[in-house]
Amino acid sequence: MPQGDKDKYTDKQKRKAEHIEKGYERKGVSDKEAESRAWATVNKQSGGGNRSGGSGQKKSSGSKATDRSDSAKQAAATRKAGSRSASLQDQTKDQLMAKARARDIKGRSSMRKQELVNALRKSN
């Protein structure tokens, strides 16, 4: 299916996009931009084309809930791991620089990331 092909959309989605597009055109938005915004809105609201076999298949609400739960568990594990000193390597240079500043490590402004990690480990 070529990019921009609307065959996978239902008639209702096509009508909705057309209606949204006309609204944008009335507001003075160019034709091309209005069409782009209209289809983006339809995709956001309905998850893309809904005909069987398309890539825009909606997930069931149970599947979404499971995904959210898994994501929350992963985020909690990441936060927990972030509190350990072994995770200095995983932090950004800016985060390491802030820690080095708080511990008043001399020469920190010219250090590379690995040097900051080493200096912070020594300062404990």
Automatic annotation (TrEMBL):
Residues 1-36, 101-115 have a biased composition (Basic and acidic residues). Transmembrane segments: none annotated. This is Rho termination factor, N-terminal domain. Residues 1-124 are annotated as: Disordered. Residues 88-123 form the Rho termination factor-like N-terminal domain. It comes from the Bacteria. It comes from Halopseudomonas bauzanensis. Residues 46-56 have a biased composition (Gly residues). One of its GO terms (biological process) is DNA-templated transcription termination. InterPro entries: Rho-like_N, Rho_N_sf. It holds the Pfam family Rho_N.
